[in-house]
Amino acid sequence: MLAIFAKTTLELAMVLLLIYGFMHEKELIKFEHYLKMVVVVNYRRYKKKKRLEQMRKNREFKLVKGGRAAASKRSADTYYVA
Asked: How many domains does the chain have?
């Protein structure tokens, strides 16, 4: 019995939402465009933030003991910034 009541309630809600949508179509279209803009802007911010974090990570200086020592003929105790 509860399942029939729940199904009927959902169907009634869908019919009311459709009627509301037809009556206020322009407002719904404006709202959809607003939501699309918000999603796109936030996605672009997210991608920019990730790109900047990756650039910062790539620019970090790392001390490597004996790095390029053989190529530059330095001693093994020297440090070089990678």
From this structure: 1
